[in-house]
Amino acid sequence: MSLSQDILDAITAFRKENEDLVQANIRKIYRYKYGEETLSVGENTVSFPVEDDTAYPEPESYSLILYATDADGVDITASIIVTENTTSGFKVDSPRIGTLIWESSLKIPDFNFHT
């Protein structure tokens, strides 16, 4: 017995909505943020988007994932040094002009029974 196309479409829509809901909740409890910044030589300041409900409580409470390329597209990630973390952003030193792609999230999820 095979299912009709209408039922298969309804199942597909239901699965997609549930996947979106799970992804949104994961982003919420880890306070996931991301962005892309243009780097100059020397110190660069990256500020997090300002949202009251997703601010990080302490500078040590989040982790960073960084990927950087110079103006020629050469990977310079290993040369990027994080010099300061704050609750509203971080600072990095760059040896060359380029682009920084970053992601941040809480190390320990902000989970409660109302999440």
Describe the structure.
With 115 residues, the chain is α+β, with helices and mostly antiparallel strands. It has two domains: 1-30; 33-106. Helices cover 22% and strands 37% of the residues. The chain has one helix and six strands; from the N terminus they run αββββββ. The protein has one helix spanning 5-29; strands at residues 33-39, 42-47, 62-70, 81-86, 89-94, 98-106. A three-stranded antiparallel beta sheet has the order 1-6-3, with no helix packed on it. The longest helix is centred in the N-terminal third of the chain and has 25 residues, at 5-29. The radius of gyration is 19 Å and the shape is elongated. 12% of the residues are buried. The model has no long low-confidence stretch (mean pLDDT 89).
Kindly state the percentage of residues in helix. Answer: 10-25%
- For the termini, the CA-CA separation is 40 Å
- Radius of gyration equals 19 Å
Largest β-sheet summary = 3 strands, antiparallel
The succession of helices and strands, N to C, reads HEEEEEE
Q: How would you state the average pLDDT, rounded?
A: 89
Give me the number of helical elements: 1
Care to count the β-strands?
A: 6
The tally of structural domains comes to 2
The secondary structure category is alpha+beta
Segments where pLDDT lies below 50 for 5+ residues?
none
Tell me the overall shape: elongated
Strand order of the largest sheet: 1-6-3
Share of β-strand residues: 35-45%
